[in-house]
Amino acid sequence: MAAEAMYHLELRQFPHVVRVFNLSREELDTRFVRPWVTGAMIEHDDRRWPPERSRLKILEGPRLRAEEMGMGRGWASATKSATDVTDALLAEARRGADARPELEALQAAIQEVATHPVSFQDVMALAAAGHPTWRASEQLALAEQAVWEMLHQSRLTMVVAGEPVSQSRWQPVVLSWATWAGAGQQAFALQAPSQPVA
What domains can be seen in the chain, in order of their start residue? Predict the structure, then answer.
């Protein structure tokens, strides 16, 4: 069984830097991400970090052991084994700041058809069918968010050539226009994880 992904965070406000390791998703969202996207002051390490004057970086990867964090090596260890998910998680939090029934409706539609592998273009078609008057960029943003959340909620698995795609590769695939346009060299697909990989 794969180890649960952990989150490692860096806050910068010149000349100060603080790093926090081995956060669960709930801890990350509650203590840092939600306050950040709402513009609230983050209080950590006896300092106040205003989002408008600070920089935030979030890495997702395996839990760091104590020996990997000793002698100030924690961040270097994290960057070797983790993926930068800052933009994706902040975008997810901003979109989730208020209820989005259209997101839930699209996720339900994806769930219905994902008993067999579906392409990213299929997901775009579902978003377009549900919201034909929306701009293409809005349909894409909805489709991207729906897939990103479902992957992280283990409601979808990403596959290519019949093989599962590792979580560390999800972000560049989901955020690539070539993926959604079907212009990439590899044909990525999505399916419900309970189904055997074809």
Answer: 6-95 (no CATH), 101-191 (1.10.10)
